[in-house]
Amino acid sequence: MPKLNTFKVKIETGSTGIGEPVRFAINSHTLPFENTKGGTGAGEVFEGEYDINSFAHSLTLVGPDEGEWHIDKITVDLHCESTEPYSINYGAVVLTPTNQVNIWQDPPIPAFNV
Q1: How far apart are CA 39 and CA 47, in angstroms?
Q2: What pLDDT shows up at residue 82?
Q3: Strand partners, 23
Q4: Mind listing the pLDDT tens digit for each residue in 43-73?
């Protein structure tokens, strides 16, 4: 498991947004994003990042405190120690106060032609 240095997220909200800070959980610790721009209202795009500098046993996007958040697309850029940066794209999901979406994926395995 590589050490996660930083990650950035871009979230495209669908028909139902939220009016509260976007949070994530790393290893069961919930935190708000830093260096944010955009919004989370219906049809808006939110971008945020965080300098973790820790091993990510789990990394999830947390649902709102109330209501539903309809997300059309999530893009996560991950920068791990000793690997090339990589991006993961996720499709539509609905987040509620009782669920989260996993946004962690191990770095791609190096491949080469033989």
Answers
A1: 8
A2: 87
A3: 32
A4: 999 999 999 999 999 999 999 999 999 999 9
Q: Tokens in use for 71?
A: 């997300």
- Sheet with 59-62, edge to edge strand ranges: 29-32, 23-26, 59-62, 100-102
pTM (two decimals): 0.92
Confidence at 1, pLDDT banded by 50, 70, 90: confident
Close Cβ partners of 29 (under 8 Å, ≥ 6 residues apart): none
- 10 forms beta bridges with 47, 75
DSSP per-residue codes, 58-109 = -EEEEPPSSS-EEEEEEEEEEEETTS--EEEEE--EEE-TT-EEE---PPPP
Please report the domains of the chain, with CATH numbers, ordered by start residue. 3-102 (2.60.60)
In single-letter form, the type of residue at position 114 comes to V
